[in-house]
Amino acid sequence: MKRIYKFLVVLTAMALVAGCTKNFEDLNTDPTKAGPESFNPNFLLTTSQLRYTGSADFSYETWRAQLIHFSTMMQHFSHLAGYWVGDKYTINPDYNAAYFQRAYDEQVKHVVDLVELTRDKPEFSNLHQIGRITKALIFHRITDIYGDVPYSEAGMGFYKRIFKPKYDLQQDIYADLLKELEDAAAKLDPAKDKPTGDLMYNGDITKWKKFAFSLMLRLGMRLTKVDANLAKTWVEKAAAGGTLSGNADNAFIKHDAGGGRPTVNRISQILNLPYEIPYIRWSRTFINLLKTTNDPRLGVLAEIPPPSPNENTLGAAGDQTPANQLGMPNGYDLQGGPTDISTAPGYPGSWYKYSRPVNRFYAKMDGITMLLTYGESELLLAEAKQRGWNVAGTAAEHYNNGVRAAMTMLSQWDAAAVVTDAQANAFLAANPYNAANGLEMISTQYWVATVFNDYETFANWRRTGFPVLTPVNYPGNATGGTIPRRLMYPQGEASTNSENYQAAITRLQGGDKLTSRVWWDKP
Amino acid sequence: MKILLHSLFIRRLTCISLAACLLVQSLHAQSGYAVNGKKKGIFGLFSQNDNQNQPSAKQTLFNVLKDLNRQKGVYFLFSDPSIGSRQVNAVDNSNAAIEKILEQVLKNTGIKYKKVSDNTFVILYSKENPKKAEKSGIQLESLQASQDAAGNNLVNSVNDVITGRITGSDGNPVAGVSISVKGTRRGTATNADGEFSIEANKGEILVISSVGYVTQEVVVSDEARISIRLVQSDSQMSEIVVTALGIRKEAKRLGYAVSKVEGEGLTKAREMNVANGLVGRVAGLNVSSVAGGPGSSTNIVIRGVNSFSGGSPLFVINGVPMDNSPRGSAGMWGGADLGDGISNINPDDIEEISILKGSTASALYGSRASNGVILITTKSGKDKKGIGIEFNSNLVMDDIIDHTEYQYVYGQGLLGVKPGSQSNAYISGANSWGAKIDNSNAVQFDGVTRPYSANKDNIKNFYRTGHTLTNTIAFSGGNENGNFRLSASNLLNKSVVPNSGMRRNTFNLNLNSKLTPKLTLSTVVNYIIEKSKNRPNLSDSPGNSNFGIAFLPTTVNESILRPGFKPDGAEINFSDNIYVTNPWFAANAFVNDLSRNRVITMAMLKYDFTSWLSLQGRIGQDYYNDRTTSVTPTGTAYAAKGGMTENSIKFTELNADVLLSAARKLSDDFELDVSVGGNLLRAKSEIHNSTGDQFNVPFLYALQNANNRNTRYDLLRREVQSVYYTAELGYKGMLYLNTTGREDWFSTLPIENNHLFYPSVSASFVFSEVLKASWLNYGKLRLAWANTSGQAEPYQTKLYYSIDGSVNGYPIGVNTNTNVPNSQLEPFRLKETEVGLELRTLGSRLGLDVAWFNRQVIKEIISVPASPTSGYQGATINFGELENKGVELMLTGTPVKTKSLTWTSSFNITKLNNKVLKLSEGQSSLQMGESRSRNAYIHHVVGKPASQIMAFDYKRDASGNPIFDANGRPLQGLLIPMGAGFHDVFGGWFNEVNYKGLNFSVLIDFKSGGKIFSATNYYATIFGLHQMTLEGREGGVVGNGVNESGGKNTVSEDAWDYYGALATNVSSTFVYDASFIKLRQIVLGYNLPAKWFSKIGVQGVNVSLVARNLAVLKKNTPNIDPESNYNSSVAQGLELAGVPPFRSYGLNINFKF
Asked: I need a labelling partner for B373 at 20 to 30 A (CA). Which of A244, B161, B573, B878 fits?
């Protein structure tokens, strides 16, 4: 016993001596994580791209911003529940804030890191340029939604120790985004490094170059209302640089069903929710437009859900007959009052009987999120030409290319969602481009072409005003019966970034409201 | 570089000295054992393990007497313990009479005996040979008195031996009482039976003194045996308190405030979290519980918010720091409170709690003590004789208090219409904006038509009567060489929340043994096994039964939601807001289990080189393993396929320390007490977390049955190395000066800035010793100043990346820092000045203890919330200044004191003046928390007390009128501070009446000045349950104010839209004054007369009727209890859908064998 005791004491004493010699620096280094010096920045490109499609946290902003707000405001979808505030122009401050909150935390943070970690590193030259292009992709959407937002100081908490970024003027943001795209595109070089973390183009530098110019085209075109000359300059630059040249160049992210919430398709995740299934329906506006023009997409976009036993069985094929499709009008509810859906003209007896997106094509957990397409680019080039700008080809050519591509690209969602070239050509023959109302035709097709990417639909609609949408006038709406022009900032910014937030609000005509307009959305 | 080398050198030196001390101990231990074998005879009684085989004509007296004791059954008392080692003659004839044998044995030895009774003899030196005794080096009784005796007939005029027994005021014997003969150096002490004997002549004066008792003088008369009853002295004078590092000191020496709470006060009317028992008991201590049901964690703040991040005081149990971090807590997005560290402790094991309030008191703990220190000493077997058994049984019942006062005029529905169809009923399931309740029929969400009438008892019917049964058994015992106490307890709790409860077993072993007369070993082991079942979620609605039941429209009877699930297991979902979980489903199907195994151990060796110099080494460890399992069940409305999380945390904190202490009288007037020591702290947390969702086989809640599985592992490590000293100079027992210093080296800070020195100085002046005024029984002035610091968390200095799964084979890389790291961190500082005054008058029946303090936190390390647009939620920086001034006052009195009736009363009150002086450069406020309503926050605001509730005011015109929009809805104005979430005045009034065996006590406590943002009231308004929403239900509401163009607002808006806008835009509507007065505790106890049980060996039985949280005497918060914060963080002042408060009442029975 004595010996054991003595032994223990001596042992403890030795352990203490040994323990004390530990290096504090090592002890205070997290052994479970990597430092910036050893981390492969390609992994951050993956993250920036994936999270641009929506939050890893259960489609947080895809649900609230894209679906609840923009898809219904743009009358692609309609919905009966009160919390789908975009359908009725009512206000939920949380949902307004959702995109802002998630984008900075999940997209901006990682893309800024990507750009910073690859700066001045020859081995990551192309990765760096792709990082800058992706950063422009990320920021234009944020500013399109809210207006003036933190940009130049955003994501710089670590690098510049800026904890309260200022809100840059949208005008300045756009100027810088376009400059960045131009510079990055010029510096892309297929002879240099091939990025390995690229979900979009798998490191194909040529495609990235086209993507950069297509994005420049999109951004340049945004400025038509506020500064047509500036728009012209950039659009012509983009066209000269070479935009996407076919559906094979379409920028999309293919999702992974195996990774759960963080990797599945953000929209599908919501379309699959048992309590959303019965209510997410194509808007009457959308279905009617496709119907009146005999659009071949109708048959592969819409279905009437299969009947009993469960009218909303997921994945089961419904009735895709174009003639049977029926859109649900926006601005209705289930409250039993004057706006109850049962009071809607032509109510089919149950809201289940309205058309929904073809479930097995567009609600796949491993489905794609489309980000920027050849079809969009062509439609914008058509508009540029229509405006008389210096762009190769004719407006009609670009229009036809755009419409055809937008129709045939649906097969990229699902191999069975086929619209043939012949069907597309027949449509174009029946609805030929007419320069007299060219802008309306182009924009209306853009509205159809960007379905499932309502961020873009909303931006282009605000710029062009086409198609002319009839707003709903739901009781107690917050916009006086007009379609909102932006979303409101997070109230949390009043708390964590008060001065900059107040300054941004002061600059907004009419304050931080749904009806206030961003800089390029000149009335 | 130089600094670096220097610090490394010092650190190394510390380590080596730590190690060396332990080695020295081991060597001493060795020699201790050697001595042990030969020598024995501590005092009065004999030990068994003596060497009996000494083949010598001369033997030690001790051995001889020991044999006699065995053979003849006689007992011997020594006037001086050293006598036993003297050589005496061997026994010639063991059959002779005992007196004969003794005479023969002691012949020519200078030792004599005196017969006290037939079988008891006192052995003492005779006067002939004092010098011999002196040479033996043993401290010797003075024989002056006998030398003074005249003549040579010395033997016949021998001094009388006086024997006696000394008892305390309760009649029980008191051991260790010192008895001396005045004017001589003769002295002795009582044994465990309170017996003593001493040589004294008639007419001499015996001085009887003992710590805690009034010193008495007794003139020796003819009586050979006396018995004396001690009177307890003024406790302030001689009270011993436990101070930093476990050093026990007389209270009068302290230049700072230390409060002591006896364990006994916490056991009868007990709380599952023992910390809650401190509410209202100690000046300066603000304790508030979390509305998370029984066993929830507790917010403890000593002397106001001490730091921007809040933080719990350091808890030290028997010298071992114990972790008190909350194990899961609710935030704006919900979550369950899983209790904290202190809630593991069984109150029956606590002997006393010492609260080191000021920085000076806790300065020796250095950086750990920024929030004050609470020292817990567990019971030991000391002062016990033989084996004692104590059994305590406590049963309390819990009943919730429903504070809701909703409107019962309108029922479920929307737009003023009652549901007309099942789908209507489902869509409006969570809303009470329906028609007037008229007892007609209405369809409900399940399609069944039921009367449209109010159910006022939904909440009471949902919760149940809970109960907690605690049984503790403790064995204790001891003798001069050591003592032990072993306890085991079992706690069974059935929560007021259906299907929820807790089980806790604790084992406590306390061993103290004298390995040699100079070497003492103390060991304490606390073992805790705790299992909680289904801790309720709080705050946000998913999986939160409290939310589901709190806002259920009153025309829906909760019983139709039972049992929460359909036959196929799917949730009975009663509204289109699927995130409002059916309360019965949340209670019956959700899983939220926790198990904890915790061992807190301590071993300490103390070696007394001499009576004034000692060295102690101590190793203590707090280890626990927590396992939590939470399951979102199959069939949950918002997650049909469910999901689960398994979490395992292994935490270890090891502390090793050494302390070399010297205490000497420098002269008659001066005494000096110095200690130096060092401490090594190593802490480690290992966290394994696994999640999965979408169960493949329904209802099979195992991770391997889930998809999308994710695992993560975290390892947090921390080390602090410290050296410290304390020195105290005392003058004439009335003036004491103390200084301490400590230097800490932190692993968590950048090498360049990783250490800091913390000094403290304090003084105590017992001026009553100078004044000697008859009216002043005691008067003391305290002065103290200290500089301390707080700690930093690991890994805050660098940026880190990790992989968060993969998509199509591409790794998803993530920046894992939610806070911006900082490579420039430095230790922060905390300064405190304290002045205190203690007075006692009217024969010590009235006492006053008042303290004023002023403390400042400078450049604390804290995470500043950043705008998420920075890429981070916050940034870790050194910044800010926070000031805390305050006055604590404690009045104690004994209004009635007769032989059989005593009434004691104590009142304490604390007034704080807390102020944020500075945040980071250019920053005026700092966000610490947010309500689920997302329109109210907790901020630290410059110029205001910490933790301000921030809410939106009306938008107002220049003259302050609220502005309404074109629809007649109030517009949102500025976010303004509405008051602090912490109270600035609090205290308690405790009264106790003792009448013979009866004991009755009442505790009333109060808090005032704090505010609370009630999201419960916010949601009650949103859903149309709040009484406020009755106005304008029919005909609409016209807000009193102006419209946007400045004219009077005349627009009438529908009540549902008006109140919805009011709640959303004008959150200040729901900020309430959280002041209250509560009847906190009543105990009625009776000590059953001991004689009833004496035959069956029971020494005492106490039966008490107990009650806690009986009534709210005053509050200003509609629908909620003012104490209903959902977590214990610094962001106090937020409330939503917690477990309602409950009153507890029951019985406590205590048996002592």
From this structure: B878
DSSP string covering B317-358 = ETTEEE----SS--BTTB-B----SGGGS-GGGEEEEEEE-S
Task: Flag if A256 and B930 touch (Cβ within 8 Å).
Answer: no
Q: To the nearest whole number, what is the mean pLDDT of chain B? A: 86
Q: Does A310 touch chain B (CB under 8 A)?
A: no
Pair of tokens at residue A46? 């993956």
Query: Which residue is closest to B716 within chain A, CA to CA?
Result: A30
pLDDT at A132 over 80: yes
Q: Which residue has better confidence, B12 or B449?
A: B449
How far apart (Å, rounded) are the C-alpha atoms in residues B320 and B376? 9
Question: What is the residue-wise DSSP string for A366-419?
Answer: T-EEEEE-HHHHHHHHHHHHHTT-S-SS-HHHHHHHHHHHHHHGGGGT-TT---
Q: Which residues of A touch B19 (CB under 8 A)?
A: 13-14, 16-17
- Look at residue B524 and give its three-state secondary structure: strand
Chain A, residues 106-145, CB within 8 A of chain B, namely 108-110, 112-113
The two most distant CA atoms of chain B are separated, in Å, by 122
pLDDT tens per residue across span B1087-1105? 888 778 777 778 889 999 9
Alpha helices in B510-614 (DSSP H): 545-550, 583-588
At A258 the pLDDT is 85
Cα separation, A5 vs A11, whole angstroms: 10
In this complex, is the C-beta atom of B415 within 8 Å of any C-beta atom belonging to chain A? yes
Cβ of A93 within 8 Å of Cβ of B803? The answer is no
Phi, psi of A496 (to 5 degrees): -100, -15
- d(CA B1012, CA B1131) in angstroms, rounded, equals 11
pLDDT tens-place string over residues B584-641: 999 999 999 999 999 999 999 999 998 889 999 999 999 999 999 999 999 999 988 9
Confirm if B819 and B875 have CB atoms less than 8 A apart. yes
Distances in Å between the Cα of B1016 and the Cα atoms of A247, B460, B545, B1136 are 54, 17, 14, 5
pLDDT band at B311 (very low <50, low <70, confident <90, very high): confident
> How many Å from the N-terminal Cα to the C-terminal Cα in chain A?
92
pLDDT band per the 50, 70, 90 thresholds, residue B30: very low
- pLDDT for B990 equals 95
pLDDT score of B1091: 78
Say what the pTM is: 0.79
Task: Give the list of residues 6+ apart from residue B630 with CB closer than 8 angstroms, or none.
Answer: B336, B590, B591, B592, B593, B644, B645
User: Please, how many CA atoms are within 13 Å of residue B137, restricted to the half-sphere of its CB?
Assistant: 1
CA distance B1060 to A478: 13
Query: Does the structure show a pLDDT above 60 at A108?
Result: yes
- Which pLDDT belongs to residue A12? 54
User: Residue B932: closest CA among chain A residues belongs to which residue?
Assistant: A94
The shortest C-alpha distance from B52 to chain A (Å) reads 22
Q: What's the pLDDT at B234?
A: 54
